[in-house]
Write a structure and sequence with these properties.
The protein is of the alpha/beta class and 128 residues long. The protein has one domain: Response regulator (Rossmann fold).
């Protein structure tokens, strides 16, 4: 599966944070796609898994969400060999963020409140 540079899947239940991240990434030349929870994100990811230009180069994943949490999304993603290799950066305000990110096999972590420069560094690392 080949990812087109710039497509970023934002999985965040807070509409203000989701909109801020989408705007920030758009202004930096990336192509954000937003989902309000893990269930919507899983559907989006699975829908584009056969359309290589649309596959995200990175998933920005909040952990605490309704319907399907970040943990549940990641388990489902890892269980699907076609989308399992899409890298995930975990976003959370949890004090044990590093342990949670490592347990989920995340490539990076973005502490909340979000430092925009740090977030962009992570996105550029996987989507440049």
């Amino acid at each position: 599966m080949v990812a087109t540079p710039g497509n970023v899947l934002i999985v965040e239940d807070d509409p203000d944070v989701r909109d801020m991240l989408s705007t920030l990434l758009s202004l930096e030349g990336f192509h954000p796609v937003a989902a309000e929870d893990g269930l919507e994100a899983l559907h989006l990811l699975r829908a584009v898994r056969h359309r290589a230009p649309d596959v995200p180069c990175l998933v920005l994943l909040d952990l605490k969400m309704p319907r399907l949490s970040g943990h549940e999304f990641r388990r489902a993603q890892l269980g699907d060999p076609i989308v399992a290799n899409v890298p995930v950066a975990v976003m959370s305000g949890a004090v044990d963020l590093q342990q949670r990110a490592e347990a989920l096999g995340a490539v990076a972590m973005v502490p909340k409140p979000i430092d925009c420069d740090a977030l962009l560094d992570v996105v550029r690392r996987y989507c440049a």
